[in-house]
């Protein structure tokens, strides 16, 4: 019996797959994530052995689990593209049109460059109909409603990759039958493609009719859309590409995070290269936190934001609501390459409080209060930390745009004595931004819980960029 399992990794919106045949007992995993226990568990559930681990390309947004999975199951080989791959670890090379037989089905590798030079997609065929694919694992070449971006290897590579992407989409994917199902490498929320659709699968026919990337009459029009109009690339992507090309460290288990009592925690926090991450809610953080801490709340998207805010060699101290949260938080963090944990605060903020150690607060102002303040106090600087697309869709009148993903560098020139209020869509990213500013010495910073969602709920005034140009 044929089996296919999709594994969605929340926070980074990454999709990986287990495909297998229970009669032959063989299975393959495509693009495994870092914490690989899920694949072993699914294989055991279906009574198959993982014999193949395929990588569609060198990933930029998460740490590959291919080496860890092959080591863990002991029966699998890793298979990588043989084209301009820059892989630096041992694996089996895969060439264009190479066939892999699994009994009831077969996978056929197709070279689909554009997002990266080495990119592979894998057609899925029944063995009895070996020349008629009914599905294709598209990796980061074709998404639901979108396509992979060609600008992640630097400006010198972008033009050539954009041309390859155009040829991949128009000369390969659009020549497949309409009924072919696509299984992409990412869902909505990933920065590997612009405005990826909410559905996790689609068909070639549906994408042919509705995907903007597949509707351009020539390459020049396509290039303008995918290159000139692309959203900013997350700054940590090049670092993860290098890590994945070199071969990620084999992780047989999650790293041990030592529990530190308050005074030991404070001593560690004062060491060079250490960052304190407070994973509590924005309101808890605002009410009292350790000086210098950055608030990246315990939600799936913290994977991406730890990746954005911290260098890979930074040591992390964690503050959690309760010790039982440690493992789930650690899983989120290691997915974007961070595994250097200095410890966590044993007993949480209650222990810190009872030890009588210093606390700081981060003011939280409601939308109603900010509405009054922005009209009464011209010295208040309102920072919109949402993405460019969100900003262009409408923002608070008088706000300045400081995209959170770029704030590590952009806030350097701001006046540390001025007054600021930061907002995003809900307050989560704004709390990251405002806590980052406080950790850099900004004295008068406030967060806006509810942020844009609350602003719209209050039916407050909205400004759009075109209104400013009129």
- How many separate helices? 17
The assigned structural class equals alpha/beta
The number of domains is 3
Q: Approximately how much helix is present in the residues? A: 25-40%
Summed over residues and divided by their number, the pLDDT gives a mean of 94
- What form results from the Cα inertia axes? globular
Quaternary structure type:
single chain
* Sheet of most strands: 6 strands, mixed
CATH topology of the largest domain: Metallo-beta-lactamase, Chain A
* N-to-C span: 63 Å
How would you write the strand order of the largest sheet? 1-2-3-4-5-6
EC number: 3.-.-.-
Protein name: Putative polyketide biosynthesis zinc-dependent hydrolase PksB
Pfam families: Lactamase_B, Rhodanese
InterPro entries: Metallo-B-lactamas (IPR001279), Mito_Persulfide_Diox (IPR051682), POD-like_MBL-fold (IPR044528), Rhodanese-like_dom (IPR001763), Rhodanese-like_dom_sf (IPR036873), RibonucZ/Hydroxyglut_hydro (IPR036866), Thiosulphate_STrfase_CS (IPR001307)
3D architecture notes:
- The structure is a single chain.
- α3 crosses α5 and α9 packs across α10.
- The model has no long low-confidence stretch (mean pLDDT 94).
- It is globular, with a radius of gyration of 24 Å.
- It has 17 helices and 23 strands.
- The protein is of the alpha/beta class.
């Amino acid at each position: 019996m044929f089996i296919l399992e999709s594994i969605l990794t929340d926070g980074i919106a990454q999709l990986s797959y287990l495909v297998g045949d229970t009669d032959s007992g063989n299975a393959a995993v495509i693009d495994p994530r870092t914490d690989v226990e899920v694949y072993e568990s699914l294989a055991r559930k279906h009574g198959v052995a993982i014999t193949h681990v395929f990588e569609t390309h060198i990933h930029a947004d998460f740490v590959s689990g291919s080496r860890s999975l092959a080591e863990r199951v002991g029966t699998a080989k890793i298979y990588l593209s043989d084209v301009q791959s820059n892989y630096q670890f041992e694996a089996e090379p895969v060439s264009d049109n190479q066939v892999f037989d699994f009994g009831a089905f077969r996978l056929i590798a197709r070279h689909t460059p554009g997002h990266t030079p080495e990119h592979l997609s894998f057609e899925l065929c029944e063995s009895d109909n070996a020349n008629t694919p009914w599905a294709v694992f598209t990796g980061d070449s074709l998404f639901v409603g979108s396509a992979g971006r060609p600008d992640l290897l630097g400006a010198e590579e972008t033009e050539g990759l954009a041309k390859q992407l155009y040829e991949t989409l128009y000369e390969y994917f659009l020549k497949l039958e309409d009924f072919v199902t696509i299984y992409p490498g990412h869902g909505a929320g990933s920065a590997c493609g612009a405005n990826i659709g909410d559905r996790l699968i689609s068909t070639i026919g549906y994408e042919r009719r509705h995907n903007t990337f597949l509707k351009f009459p020539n390459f020049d029009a396509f290039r303008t859309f995918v290159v000139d109009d692309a959203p900013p690339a997350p700054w940590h992507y090049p670092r993860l590409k290098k890590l994945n090309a070199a071969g990620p460290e084999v992780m047989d288990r999650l790293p041990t995070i030592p529990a530190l009592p308050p005074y030991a925690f404070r001593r560690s926090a004062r060491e060079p290269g250490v960052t304190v991450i407070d994973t509590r809610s924005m309101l808890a953080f605002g009410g009292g936190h350790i000086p210098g801490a950055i608030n990246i709340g315990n939600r799936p998207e913290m994977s991406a934001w730890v990746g954005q805010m911290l260098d890979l060699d930074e040591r992390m101290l964690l503050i959690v609501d309760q010790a039982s949260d440690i493992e789930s938080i650690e899983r989120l963090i290691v997915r974007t390459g961070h595994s250097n944990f200095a410890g966590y605060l044993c007993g949480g903020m209650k222990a810190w409080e009872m030890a009588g150690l210093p606390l700081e607060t981060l003011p939280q102002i409601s939308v109603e209060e900010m509405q009054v303040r922005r009209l009464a106090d011209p010295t208040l600087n309102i920072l919109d930390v949402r993405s460019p697309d969100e900003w262009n869709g409408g923002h608070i009148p008088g706000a300045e745009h400081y995209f959170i993903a770029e704030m590590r560098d952009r806030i350097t020139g701001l006046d540390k004595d001025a007054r600021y209020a930061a907002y995003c869509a809900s307050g989560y990213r704004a709390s990251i931004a405002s806590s980052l500013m406080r950790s850099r010495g900004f004295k008068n910073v406030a967060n806006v819980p509810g942020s844009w969602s609350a602003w719209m709920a209050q039916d407050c005034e909205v400004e759009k960029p075109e209104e400013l140009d009129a």
